[in-house]
Amino acid sequence: MVEKIAPGQVTIEHAAVEQVMIEFDYDAAAELFPSRKQKSRRRPIGYRRFGHAADAIRFAIEELPPEFLLGACLEVDEDRYNDKAIRRLYDSTDYPLTRGARPPFDSLQTQANADEAT
Q1: Sign of CA dihedral 66, 29, 19, 22
Q2: What is the DSSP string of 82-115?
Q3: What is the per-residue pLDDT across 78-98, written as a single tens digit (0 to 9) for each?
């Protein structure tokens, strides 16, 4: 169970997550598995392989329709990252690529939930 972190409070779990993000290799090859669970009117997007994890993260956040990002999995060096971890990697100060315009994660969840309801 992950506990909420109040401003100024750091837990062991939070410190471990930050350490993992610091050690992430954006240059490593990556595989992206978009979610197939969400109902969508769009054509399903399947597995994609990228030469660099940074490119996979950029694609997931900037190009992948929101309903396919929710529940997506990024695999890098046999480590797996869920949709929230992909967002944290994209938002990290270590992210090497220039970021494009994309709404924040919370609005993506709201949009995907609205698409699912229709």
Answers
A1: negative
A2: -HHHHHHHHHSTT--SPP-----HHHHHHHHHHH
A3: 999 999 999 999 999 899 998
Half-sphere exposure of 87 (CA within 13 A, CB side): 16
Q: Which of 4, 51, 59, 9 is nearest to 33 (CA)?
A: 59
Is residue 57's pLDDT more than 60? yes
Total Cβ atoms within 10 A of residue 99: 11
This prediction has a pTM of: 0.64
| Residues 47 and 33 sit within 8 Å (Cβ to Cβ) | yes
Whole-angstrom distance, CA of residue 53 vs CA of residue 59: 10
Of 78, 79, 67, residue with least CA distance to 117: 67
